[in-house]
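Reviewer 2 asked us to include a model.

Predict the structure of this chain.
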Amino acid sequence: MLESLHIENIAVICKADIDFGRGFCVMTGQTGAGKSVIVDSIMLVCGAKADRELVRSGENSACVIAHFTGLSQSCIKALDELGVTCEDGDVVLQRTLASDGKSSARINGRAATLGMLREVSAHLISIHGQDDTRMLSDLQYHTDMLDAYAGLDEQKAAYRKLYDEWRALCDKRDALTRDAGERLRTIEMLNYQIADISALKLKAGEEEVLVEKRNKLQNTEKVQKQVRFSTKVLTKAGSNGSVSYMLERSAASMNALAPYVSDAAAVAEELVDLSYRVRDLSDRIEAYAEDLEDDPTAMLDKIEDRLEAISKLKRKYGSSVEAVLEFLENAKQRLDEIEHSDVLAEQYDAEIAELHARALQEAQKISERRTKAAREAAELIAHQLCYLDMPGVKFHVAVTREQELVPDGIDRVEFMIATNPGEPLSSMIKIASGGELSRIMLAIKCVMNQRDRIPTTVFDEVDTGISGKTSRKIGIRLGDMASTQQIICITHSAQVASLGEQHLHISKQEKDGRAFTSVEVLEGEARVSEIARILGGIHITKAQMQAARDMLGGSDCE
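Predicted model (structure tokens):
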């Protein structure tokens, strides 16, 4: 459950620390007081896209910290896979947002990505915002909801892999069978590119060698001077004292000591080896100037021409010689595929048929589970809607076959409803009103929550467009859900608010020309006054206060 929430510099909230209780928690307050900012903050710490406009005006950064307790085994496993350890079954999610839009995240104090936040929070909390009800008009949402109920995640992932491979191969096959004119133009272009690159006979690493050689030629005099000096010192000073001459003389001296000193002969041998190494080094240094004997200007011109030709190819085909060579190989391969497209098309056709058959088999298995789950879910949702003052409602989850495979399988899923007795089933998208959509979404959530076992669910104004007895029933249903999980509900309904086990009041004050939002736990007469305020009227009357007391102290039964 969500144990506590710390919000700092988010919109109208300067600083707020909220402790949530178990069961059913309601949040009320005037419009614009900052209730939805709390939901935005929870979504932010759960990995939602950051909007720098959320940072309170005049502040450099904002921060949200959420503390969750009583983690499920699935959540602990997910954290373990991410390398995050949990102590005492708790986890702390943190999100910091800078005024320039940059953000950072932490899980139990360890740096994390937004993807990690989303993955972990999916096991912790479900947030039903006002936009979610509008999503019921999206058929893709119908499919996603049914598949979540049916528990098809793993099976759909296996199918989607086959589907993507099949589509990719179909695209390759289509590319081979384009019109003859385009095919000829492609062959002509590839032949030109291959000839253009091949004419230069590039070699990997050639450009670096040429650049080094150019640098040496541009400094011919300096190179020759230093080479002459080094070789003279090492080997060509002769009896005047070159290094090799002095080493040889030292070796002869040590050999003369050999009859008297046991180690002298070994030292002499090492000195001789050193003299040989010095001669080898001298030869290597002398080679530095060997290619400078000819006309360096002519050689430099050749190198510059070669480098310019390489540069032209790089501008057209790649950022390096290696990239150009890779382009060449790809062009040759593509040309070969086009020129032998008939044979390759036959190979593709066989592979496409095999992949399609495998994907279709998986899609049919998914369809069978969907159809079964659709019957179960429709019956449960209809039961919930009946309780929520839609007694004559008929609810059906239609699963119909598509003509071809689609990314989610081979089905079209659509929620169908008849809101009044005697009416035929029609698309929910076309006939459901705002209040009906709110109740449908709540009914779906009630059914889904029995499956997904998410410990905390947040409802942001689930009672929009509903009043009276129906609002009371929504509150009762939320209370029922709170017997197995934590429910946090933002509401403008006195009927819903009066049923909460914990009541948080969100208010906004002005201080020094700035707006500040505060959160207060309401109890006793303070809660009675708030329920009376929600009931309406410019001034709170004794009748409203008594009605509020009746709501808070009364009992309801189904």
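The mean pLDDT is 87. Residues 341-387 form the longest helix (47 residues). We have added this to the supplementary material.
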